Amino acid sequence: MTLDAEAAITALLTRYCTLLDSGRLDEIAATIFTEDLEESHGVGMATSHGREQLTNWFRTICADWEGSAHFITNIDIEVNGATARSRCYFQAWHWFKSGESRPSDRDVDLVTVGVYLDELRLTDAGWRIASRRRRNIGSSAIGMGKLPGAFQGLGGS
Q: pTM (2 decimals)?
């Protein structure tokens, strides 16, 4: 049972990245999180409570993205019956929309690095994240690059 749960949770964490990077923002809260979720994206960003708030937050924050690529690694999962905790590192690459003509093979605008600290519950629909805390590694949200003006102050940068 534990290995099955760990595989299902790992698949859930990976699916989160896939949905985010493919722009399927309306599917994230409904298929990854519990209805009563609490998601803290870190310093300078509001904590979301419930699926509607989280979906609206993703729509707002991702509106200025041209693209992104999120990667997770070092996934550590502890299963305790119908609950679990997971910890994994993330690296997130972001390209922002710009009114100017920019080459498609340009450098990344922003890379963030940190850790996701999740509490999960087994629901009728499978494993779902009930609580996520996103925490930066390093002195700010930025691993490299620079936030556009509209994003200044978010994530402790």
A: 0.85
